Amino acid sequence: MITIVAFLILIGVLIVIHEGGHFLVARASGIGVVEFAVGFGRRLLSVTHRGTRYAINLLPLGGYVMLAGMDRTVPQTPDSFYLRPLWARFVTILAGPVANYLLAVVLFAWVLAGWGVATVPGPVIGQVLPGYPAAAAGIRPGDRILAIDGHRITSWNQISVLEGRIGSSPMTVLLERSGHDLTVTVTPVRIPGAPGPEMGVTAAVRYQRLSPAVALSQGWTEAWAAIAATAAALWGAAAHGAAPPLVGVVGIASLAGQSLAVGLSQFIFFAGILSVNLALFNLLPIPPLDGSRLLFIAVEAIRRRPLSRNLEAAVNAVGFYLLIAAAMVLAVHDVTGRL
Fold first, then answer.
1. What is the pLDDT of residue 202?
2. Percent of the chain residues past pLDDT 70, beyond the cut
3. For a designed S-S bond to 79, which of 32, 148, 207, 267 qualifies (C-beta 3.0 to 4.6 A apart)?
4. Is 19 a known active-site residue?
């Protein structure tokens, strides 16, 4: 139940922010907005102000913005989308993905300012896993590892390297505890999911909060890094002829629940990652996503006339059904693990 609620809240906020980007820029660029709705389905509550109907609908799965004149089969008015300059239409469509990107920046900055940046203060033990060799040898949280088998240790990475070299053989560990040196013997064992034998300890982690200004700057960097990582993953899959690393609605809901179980900061950070990916996904030139509308505007600028109404409608319809089919395939993959 928590997973479903977390997912609905997350998706709802991300989509409303996306549509809010379209709404604000449309109003600023002279494009009429017929309706701005939160949710889908039957209308529960609505109010009309300055020609725009603001509505709350039954199904809390995001929202939508209805721009004037988007339906080219009805009579057009001066503020209709297709009668506005190309630049106004372009920035209005682009505003949705940009809003999601800016939301990710704010969410990342929130985590960095509210919880802080995680740092590892040298080879200090944070946790000792019960039932593993380190616990049996008497190692405690807060111990600093000074040397392993005579090799001086100054960073946590050195511990992993030496564990890999030594394998499952006994090793001598020199510790510092409360200002005193202590020597213990530990025989690493294989931990499920680990690349090699380990003692059964994790690093101590400290969190340093950033000032709001620095957090915003770092949040921008994190958002851009997330876009670069996603693009690199998609490009790498395409270059090797492999299936792209995509996750469907079921998988996203599961990840949302898992991140919330870890803590609020992890959930907020996951929301930032998802917002970035939503921005990138919407820029794909696949009808009826924002990327396809930007492409149509670019083609119109080159041809100096818009595509025919019937052709655009047909392309959007085909793209819509393909997206629905892809979503169903991904949902099956999320459940069965087979694509």
1. 86
2. 89
3. 32
4. yes
